[in-house]
What we know:
Layout: E1 18-24, H1 32-42, E2 43-57, H2 64-71, H3 87-93, E3 98-107, H4 112-122, H5 128-135, E4 145-154
Parallel strand pairs: 1-2
Antiparallel strand pairs: 2-4, 3-4
Amino acid sequence: MAVVRGRAEQLPFADRSFRTVVSHLAFMLMDAAAVAREVERVLTDDGTFAAILGGGPTADGDDAFHRYVAIAPSLDVPLVDRMARSEAGWRALFPRRAVDFERVVLDLSGTFDEVWRVLGTSYEGASVEDFRDACASFGARIPLAMVVWLATARPRSAAITP
Length: 162
């Protein structure tokens, strides 16, 4: 197996050289239009692009993520292009392909240290001391739910049907 270093906006591979391209929590942090052009260039006609996209806290609930958001002054995650995080954006970025978005809720509950490792290293804004105080009422097991999206752009004939 070879390891190749490069930028997603300028992939160092030949045209039509991959049946699958995968991105894990990175696509929404890049220039989505430039990456989409490169993905289309290196994918075969029957190829698929799949990405896990961060979605943040669940829409409702009282868990560690919601309490983190409440005490953090700002959760500004640098997004180059919001199109990368929406189904409509993906349809515009990949017009030749069928686009599927699946919402997945991850249960990342655990000890305070485990939950802090997830939130404290992923987002800036809250101190460990403030977060510990905010989660004190939970007890030993801290509830944490996060939303991610599994997004795919695949040949139209291979679209997932509900």
